[in-house]
Amino acid sequence: MKQNRRKFSSAFKAEVALEAIKGIKTVSEIAQYYELHPMQVTQWKKEFLAHSAEVFEGDQKRLEEVERLKKERDELFRQIGELKFENDWYKKKLL
Q1: Cα(16)–Cα(24) distance, rounded to whole angstroms?
Q2: Which end of the chain has the smaller Cβ count within 10 Å, N or C?
Q3: Rounded CA separation 29/16 (Å)
Q4: Max CA-CA distance within the chain?
């Protein structure tokens, strides 16, 4: 009998990782409570700690992405303008 793989939300993983970081319960107790393997709890804890700094970098990344998208949009509008001009010119030449 095939057993379906469980999928966990990011919020659930963060909750488990935070509980492990607090250290109120042992990793084994947390794993038993949430019906997980202790290594899974440890992995989520390490991943949470490794990526926790990214929470504060998010604003700068978004600003850089917005700037990049604005430049890309302006370039596309410029190309559209050139193509429209060429298209109009060819229409006049054809008549």
Answers
A1: 12
A2: N
A3: 11
A4: 83
H or E segment at 2?
A: none
What length does the chain have?
A: 95
Contact between 8 and 1 under an 8 Å Cβ cutoff? The reply is no
Q: Quickly name the fold that domain 1-52 has.
A: Arc Repressor Mutant, subunit A (1.10.10)
pLDDT tens per residue, range 13-57: 999 999 999 999 999 999 999 999 999 999 999 999 998 887 777
Distances (CA, A) of 29 to 7, 18, 23, 66, 95: 21, 14, 11, 44, 83
Measured between alpha carbons, how far is 18 from 56 in angstroms, rounded to an integer? Answer: 17
